[in-house]
Give the backbone structure.
Amino acid sequence: MAMLSPVGQERLLFLGLGITTCAVLAFVRYRLVHFREAATIPPPESKSHFIDQKTEDSLKLSTLEKLIKNPNYGIQETASIIVCERALHNEYAINSLLHEIGQPEYGKRAIAVRAFILIVNNSTVKRIHKPETYEALVKSLEYSVEDYVHHEYDPDWDNWPLRDTAEKSCLMIIYELIYRYGVQELLNAGFIERWLVKEPWGVTTEERSINFMDSLNKEKSLNRVIVPLFHDERGRKMLEEAKLLPASPDSAARHLAMDGTEDQDMEDFDSNYAEIRPRDQTTAEDYLRRRHREAMVLNDGTRPFERGDIYENQQRPRGSME
């Protein structure tokens, strides 16, 4: 075998040194990366801002009281939600609030109503749907008649903002209840004869009925509670008995004809309370229909005014009630 020349030996030596150097550098880099990653401190895991049910149930009332008094609004809100949920699932707490709501002392009643409205919304109202709730709310409204001087009915403005807070809160709770479950329990509690009839609708019977029917045509906040009563056959009859609606002359005959059937007039009564019906109209409905009638005079002044120049439109677009 031929020997390598000195030049070839040097080239082979430099090649080996180059390969060795690259291998050493790669190994050093690998170890440095390993040490760097091993020395890195991982960031702490972010903890959830929500507490689990077990922790929530373990909180004592004294602790919740301190949390509610905390100056931090977020802590106050969380503690209030916990307290409301506990009260909502505690039958004794609900009954205690209902008892306080029905008390004649305004201070106790107002505090209980404000506490009660905190736990009531459209998703929790099913837990308070019982006769005792309607009775307590109507009794509170009955006491509110003497709490302050109620303003006389005014067709041009809504007196809802001037009502007492406790009274408004009771009406708001009642609205949530009847929106979900109807007005029968409210009628059983005597809402019309114990509170609604005592509202200052007017002095004479005629004035009271006219003002009451006029209010049905206005976008007033109280209508959220009154209109479902007007829609209900039994409620309308009780309104007539309370002299808030004029009695229908054919109410007895219509009642016999409707035995076992739905009241078609009630179904056709639109949200503006003034849709025209071809038959079986009550005095109240006819009054509302006349108020919604529109007329235009088509006369350019070049000829005498005649009856034929008046164009009456008895149709109005349907509206929506909030």
